[in-house]
Every structure is written in structure tokens, then in C-alpha cells.
Amino acid sequence: MNDQGFLQNSLDPKRTTVAQKALRTWYLGHARDLPWRSEPSLYGTWLSEIMLQQTRVETGVPKWHAFREAFPSVADLARATEDEVLKAWEGLGYYRRARLLHRAAKAIHEAGDFPSTHAEWLALPGIGPYTAAAIASIGLGEAVAAVDGNVQRVVARWAGIRQAVDSKDGARAVGLVADALLDTNHPGDHNQAVMELGALVCTPRAAQCGTCPLAATCTSAGREEAWTNLPVKQPKKKPVPWDLDWHVATCGDLVVVVQRPDSGVWAKMWTFPEGPPSNRFAALGLLFDPVTHILSHRRITASFHGWQAPDEASLRSYADEVAAYVMTWEELGALARPRLLTKMWEELSDVWTASERA
Ligand code: SF4
Fold it and tell me: Which SS3 state, helix, strand or coil, does residue 357 take?
């Protein structure tokens, strides 16, 4: 059967009805007990959808609780400062999500209520078609299919879509099938069921067709040569190497820190200057071996150079030269830092302890 044939077959209402029923039965018996499901609210659903965009569920659950505790309502989130929001987000990475979440909270608070349709959600900062569809179907019962990576995989395997799912044609084919498969009477449960199936059963490396509720209707069921090659994706670009030199200049418990620009990588987060201090500072050399850190499009190799200031006045004058600030390690620890810095915090604390003793 050619691609067109597979697609026509997938849109057959008899086939989609059988699949919908099997999916719903499976979901009601197998759904994971997640906090935003047991205490459903638009605020909780929205937060979970933003947090889980690039974060695993196991990491997301404790952060979701902590975030709810820090900002119990959308009004609390709207009234918080950006630094407070970024601090609460620490550990989740991709900080742009936190900034956009904060902007959206302000817009919701100003409007007086949450959006009540898929289209209204889509108009908020940080909300793309998938997130708007997930929130509108789960939180508002609107019949709209949500397509994330898990859904792409399940749908591509189920319907045998051989076009790259991240190409225009492939995305269109996945969208058509996802719409046809949608259980319009239970859109929230249905969308969560397909995502859950992708997370637990039809996983990237192992499709457990023997226990899958879609096996009776799936084009790839039990055919390893079919599902291992699906979904097809366009070739990825290699991450660009980025050599970063950070200069950690200290004096007692004080350190020089800079806030990064408003846009670009790690926007507005706190790091160390990239320019060295004058030769009146004692060079301590590399504090530890360079650290490799991968961001989505960059491969960072960070070198931490240590410097001991002769006195506090010299430290402050260096800070002025590089448009930086002087603060205690404790103060820096309370600010939003890139994950690379939090990852190395213990090693950096050793430097601070040694510096305090000096
Ligand atoms: S039958 Fe197999 S390939 Fe098809 S959706 Fe289920 S797990 Fe995936």
C-alpha cells in the first residue's frame, strides 16, 4: 500500500472508532497518578504542560509542587518579580519558558480570568498549538487534538506515516490522522491517553505491541522493521562548539558576578565575567578541569579561572571595569544561575571556602 493508501485507511471511521474505545479503556485503567490529574485546575494543567515541554515527568512533579507552593495562584505568579520566578524555575532549564509563563500570568491576571477557548490560549505568550490544544481539551473539554512528540510517534506508527514528522507534509499527515482519531466526547482523556501510550507503551526504542490497546488497528503492530523506522525525522544539525572562559575573582566571601543580557543564551541569569582581572590579582589557574555542557544547539566547554584579589577595593574596581557586581557567595546562590553553574556549585563552594580561609 502506498503512503496515500495508508492515510486513507487510517481515516476510516470504523477503524478510528475501534481505536478510540480501546484507548479510552486502557487509559482509565493505566493512567499514572499525577498531581495535576488528581487535583485538576486550569492553572495546574497549564503549569504542568509548560514544565513538561522539555523535562521528564519524574523531575517535573516535585518542581510542580514547589512552584505551586511558591505561587499558589496565577495572581501570585503575576505579582512575583522575574528573579523570583527564575529562581523557582531553577533546575528545569530552558528559562525562556519561565519568562513567557510569567508574561502570560500577567496577561491572565490583567484580563481577570483564564482564557476559555483554544484560540484564546494560543494568543498568550509561550503557548504554541500543542500546549493550547492540551490545555483546552484537558481543562475546558474542547474537541481539539494535541500533537506532541509522543503523539507524533504513536500516530506515525499507527498510520504508517513515512514522511518526516518535522517536515511540512509529515506534520500535516500526522495532524490529519490525530484529528480523525480524536474522541470528541472525551477529548481531554483521549489526548492524555495517546501521550501516555507514547510515554509508557509505544516508546522510542521499544514498542510493546503485545500489551498495546491500539494493536488491533495499528499498521506497525508486531512489525519491528516497521516501528523501529518510525517516526521519520529530518537530519539534525550538529551543536555549535562554544568555548567559554569564566573568571571567578574572590576576596574573602565576596565574588564578582555579572548578569547576562536580556536576550540570547541564559538571558538575565547570573554568571561570572568573561574578561580577566588585572595582574595585581593572584592567578589561581583553572579551578577544575573544563566542563562540557550541552544546550539545544550548542556544545559548551566552560573553563573556570580562579583569581584572588589583593583587597576588597581591587575586587570592586575590577567589578566596575567589567560592568559587574560584588556579592557574597550566599547572595549569588539565591539568584537564578544557568544549570551549568548549579551543577558545579559544590566545586565552586570549595573555592569559596578556601578563599575565606586565605
Ligand atoms: S501496536 Fe505497537 S507500534 Fe502500534 S501503537 Fe501500539 S506499541 Fe506502537
Answer: helix
Shortest-distance atom of ligand 1 to CA 157: 3
Residue-wise pLDDT tens digits, 168-212: 999 999 999 999 999 999 999 999 999 999 999 999 999 999 999
pLDDT in tens, 223-234: 999 999 999 999
Q: What's the whole-model pTM score?
A: 0.72
Q: Is 220 in the pocket of ligand 1 (CB under 6 A)?
A: yes
- Cα(222) to ligand 1 centroid in Å equals 8
C-alpha closest to that of 198 among 26, 13, 7, 17: 26
Measured in Å, residue 22 CA sits from the centre of ligand 1 at 13
CA 178–ligand 1 middle distance (angstroms): 15
Architecture of domain 3-227: Orthogonal Bundle (1.10)
- CA of 204 relative to ligand 1 center, distance in Å: 11
The domain ranges of the chain are 3-227, 240-357
CB 186 within 8 A of CB 24: yes
Element containing residue 55 per DSSP (H, E): none
Which of 39, 49, 274, 321 is an active site residue? Answer: 49
298-308 and 240-251 as β-strands: parallel, antiparallel, unpaired?
Answer: parallel
Q: Ligand 1 pocket, 154 CB below 6 A?
A: yes
Q: Could you check whether 3-227 and 240-357 share the same CATH topology? A: no
- Told to judge if 120 belongs to the known catalytic residues of this protein, a careful annotator would answer no
| CATH-assigned architecture of domain 240-357 | Alpha-Beta Complex (3.90)
What pLDDT sits at residue 358? 56
Q: In DSSP terms, which residues pair with 326 in a beta bridge?
A: 256
Torsion over CA: 246, 247, 253, 254 (sign): negative
27-82 pLDDT, tens digit per residue, is 999 999 999 998 889 999 999 999 998 788 999 999 999 999 999 999 999 999 99
Residue with CA at minimum distance from ligand 1 atom 8: 202
